[in-house]
What we know:
Layout: H1 4-48, H2 50-63, H3 81-84, E1 86-92, H4 101-118, E2 125-129, E3 133-139, H5 144-152, E4 157-162, H6 165-183, E5 203-209, E6 213-220, E7 227-233, H7 235-247, E8 253-257, E9 260-263, E10 275-278, H8 284-295
Antiparallel strand pairs: 1-3, 2-3, 4-5, 4-8, 6-7, 7-10, 8-9
Amino acid sequence: MLTPRATQTQEKSCVFLFGVVRYFITMQRKHWIFIAIIILAFLAGTFVWPNYFNKSVDSLNAKMPFLHLPHFWSRPYVLGLDLQGGVNLTYQADLSTVEDKSEAMSGLRDVIERRVNLFGVSEPVVQIQGEDRLMVSLPGVKDVKAAIEMIGQTPYLEFSEQRSEQEAQEILDKISQVQKAQEEGKDISQIENWELALQNPYFKPTELTGKYLSKATVVFDQTTYRPQLQLQFNSEGEKIFEQMTGNNIGKPLAIFLDNQLLQMPTVQEKISGGRAQITGRFTPAEAKEVVERFNAGALPAPIT
């Protein structure tokens, strides 16, 4: 039979043993937490700087080929302006002669986006601000001046049709007359219709310009596998292009960019649907270059 004194001693012993067990459990838990923190820190550091880990793996695999240790997963980071630098540009559009301002600004945004993509900028942002402004964010750009010039230029893309022989001869005669007057030191403004000498004697501009071009892409012929140029016009340009091709079957169309001849395909038939293909002896690199120039076509409105 236990006495009260023995019972108290036993209770104290149980409390002591419970405290010891609890202490060891607590310490063991802290050790596991500490180990977990070390593992997470290691994984986080390796995730941020995987090259150091992978170099160590390569070294171990070279010394002990039987290990076959894998590399740590890695991916390139996309840094914004706040981390990698770059430039924010705000462009003002001149919409004084534009009726549909919303459509013009959407067209401006599309063209600027194409130009930015050609510039090779990662994660660019092109946004419309207000009624007549565009905000362009270019992370990582080093040559800011080149970026401004490339984005803000206003190349004029135009589709021209062949003049009649009579029209061509009138312009050629006027050019000859103006050149003769210049050689004799005379005032060319005194020559009637002297402005004709400034025109292209062989092709005349049409209503179709880069404003109506949605995009240009490189496609490949399914039989010959040769690269071709595919042009896609918007709904308004589709109608203009259909009428123009219908009026010029069997005749060449000259496509100029900044008054420089870009392409001169011959119209084979009336083209409906707003989609046309230009065939020729293009190399893939040449086709890609021409498409880039098409896509950098005329802006719907001037910007500064």
